[in-house]
User: What shape does this take?
Amino acid sequence: MSMKAWTIAASISVIAITGLGITANHAAASAFTTASDAVEYRQKAFSLIRENFAYMSGMVRGERDYDADAFKQRAQALYHLSYIPFEAFSGAGENVTANSDALPVIWENWSDFEAKRDTFQAAVKELVNAAASENMREIRPKFMDTARGCQQCHQGYRAD
Assistant: This one.
């Protein structure tokens, strides 16, 4: 299966789970029981976020033809995905940095980490709303807000 097909299939699976009313808490609780499972879980979730974001980025930058339906689908997938990885920073994943880019400061500044997560998720919601307009002039600033939301967590909380 190609990476594009895998990304789309995984995104659709996440959307289907969310559509059935299963929260990220329930999905995360059953997804891992060990620290290594939690790290793998959040890394895979962030990988799907990155894939969807990169696809939309190509359209925003003009490197890929703008396809309103595809953009809306990717924005919606990103919205659902934005809730998935964060549960794996608690429970079995709490204070786990081995084989991970996560820094210990996440748990030392948990409330700030949560606030940055919330900012990111709110920005993604705004991106979904802008995508519905099918107007790149409305989409571009919301996309950039979302990118800044991603970057906030990378600065200080992720080893690069």
About this structure: Residues 3-157 form a domain with the Four Helix Bundle (Hemerythrin (Met), subunit A) fold (CATH 1.20.120.10). The chain has one domain: 3-157. Residues 16-30 have pLDDT under 50 and may be disordered. The two ends are 29 Å apart (CA to CA).
